[in-house]
Each structure stands twice: as C-alpha cells, then as structure tokens.
Amino acid sequence: MSVITVSRELGSGGGEIAKGVAQKLSYNYVDREIILEAAKSYSVPEKKLEEVFTKRPRFIERFVEDQRIYLIFIEDIILKFALKDNIVIVGSGGHISLKNISHVLKVRLTAPLPKRVETIMKSKELDKKKAEEMVMKNDKDRMSRMHYLYDIDWRDPTQYDIVINTESLTQECAIDMIINTIKREDFTPTDKSRRALEDKALTCNIKARLATHPLIIMSNIDIMTEERTVTITGSVFSGNEKSLVIETVKEIVGDNYIDNLSIVHPPQGDLF
Asked: Model-level pTM?
C-alpha cells in the first residue's frame, strides 16, 4: 500500500484532516511519534529534536553540527515508518525525506491568514491579536527553519502533489479528496519505488549510525545507495577514522559497499 505525508499550516485543520484520512483508510497515523521514537533511539532530548523544525535558527547554529545530526535521526525514523506502508506521516519534513518516491502522496493543507486566525481563536480561546501573533510567528519560524535546513520555501506548491485550501471546504471534503487521490494507480507501489525507498532508508540509517560514533566526523562524509550497494565518498583525517567508517558500514550491509573515501591530513604546527 501507499504512504501519505501531510504538511499543514497552523490553523488550517491539517491535523484533524490527516487523522480522518488515516481512520478511513485504516492507515497508521504518526506525528509526534516521530520525535518520540528518534529521542528514544538516539538518546536525544525530545525538546532538542522538536526545535529542529519549530524554532527559527540562531546565527550561532550555522556553526553547530548538532542540528544537522538531529535532522538525520528524524529522517531515519520517518523512513523506517514509511517502509511499513499504510501510513500517514504528519510534519517533520516528511515530504522532503520521501521526495522522489512515487508511491508517496505529498499533501499540503493551507488556508488564508484570517481563516487560520479565526480557527486558533476558537481552539486556543485567544483574542484576535494574540491568535494572529501566534499564527504569524509559527509561519515565520517554520519558513526560516525549512530554508535553513533544506534551502527551500516551505510554501512552494511544487514540493507537493496536491495543495488543498481548507477555507471553504469541510474536513470531510478534504479527506475525500486525499483518499480519492491516493487510490489512483499513480500512487500504487511498484518494485522500483519500493527499492528506491529501501535504498533511501538504508542510506539514512547508515548516516545515523555514523553520526552517533564519537570518533567519526559525519559532516565530511556522504553516503549513497543504489540497489542496496552503498557508496562512501568524502574525506577523513586519518586511516583509523576511515577504518571506523568502513567497519560501521560493513556491520549494516556486509561487503555491499564501494569505498571512495579519501584521507586528508590536517596541517601540522603553526601556519605563520
């Protein structure tokens, strides 16, 4: 069966619609479970993982590798969930992690600002000014974060298969639109699409394993997988570090890897 990712603006009703889709299709629904599982699997505080997508990046973060590593952990969990099929994945950049997988339907739910403010006023029992501030801050934080992490505009409709404006639609109508689309042959899994997903999941799992190793600098290494054959590229600073990388990869895929790692020795002594 297929996979659905849902990206939603605050106040668009996206969460309720995603739950309705999952219920009608008898699909599993995951939202916060992604963060909880990543925190458990990689011993990272939930708050730090949540901030990857919810907080605007501070200038200092541009020099901190932790955020990129946390993102790898989150993507690893998203891909593990996607491998199970029959699932609705909400938020956490699921549509980006599952990009180019043909049996994944990527949905965005949106609504005009006044409509979303009205929804938040009712659901959070806020006055108009506070509700508007909340919605606008959420939009700015998420846009800034997605640009920082992926260099994309979160609102760009070309990232999604369907974009639904919930201003005038009932939740039932939006749910039916998504269900009718996912049932089309276009989103039926094929051997090719399943292999592509498996390769992507394997790549991310290896990256996550390397990122947890205290003696490996993940930022200098890249992993690619095709037909379960892993290609390792990039650079390391010593033969010992290279051996650690190879050993980690072999633990996961055995001898199905290609080693293109180079050793770059850092400069010794004073530069001046």
From this structure: 0.87
